[in-house]
Amino acid sequence: MSDLELLTQSLARNVKHWRSVRGFTLDVLAARAGVSRGMLIQIEQARTNPSIGTVVKIGDALGISVTTLLDYEQGPKVRVVPAEQVVRLWHTDAGSYSRLLAGTEAPGPLEMWDWRLMPGESSSSEPHPAGTVEIAHVTAGELTLTVEGVEYRVPAGASVTFEANAPHAYGNQGEIPTHLVLAVSVPPVP
Question: Model pTM greater than 0.85?
């Protein structure tokens, strides 16, 4: 089975599981996530490979991390994620990407990401649930973080934290690649 097939099967199994744990019907989850009921049915039947944006929306609606949604199996309390199991979830032809390095539930979803943005590229995100916090540390280049239309410049060696329940985007307006490590903490679903 290919990596993509494993991810599709894991996503199907985990969406069904967490929807059941939360007591959500397909209609409730669709409304909370802002995705169609038909899309959820296709995901739960492993008949589609949804965009990362759709997976993030479903995770946010369920109050769990993307890592948990894509996890092949629930591991022990100590979990080492080998380099070959890091999942690249977004990329461009120019070489920009985001890789989900690791994640856990603590008590809500907590994720750690590796990002590379090539010059002139950006990636935007819809608002996350209230209480979501993101922390980024720039290791090379300069990050242009835009939150609610306001740009913040974050040079190499600097870090930034922000409340991510507003529209935001990561961009590289410089001439060299930007590298950053990003942590996302989402509050648990009440």
Answer: no
